[in-house]
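For practice. Supply one:
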Amino acid sequence: MNIPNKLKSLSISYWIHLQWIPSHVNIQGNKISDALAKAGADDASVPSAPLTYLELFSRDKSRNKTIWLIPPEHHWYQGSQ
């Protein structure tokens, strides 16, 4: 279900008001919420969800690809000049 349809169905039972809130316009609590969001984003100690098998496989595959794509550095290798 897309968002406009979901909003339309919710509006049958609820009053919905959407309002654009630009950042940094002296809205009470905005500076505090921005600071907390930035602190949370920068906090390396926040535990993340465990990686799935596919995420681990993808990271490993990418790492292996970068290792294999390093060209040889021999003086006789044509691509190293």
Q: What stands out?
A: The chain has three helices and no strands.
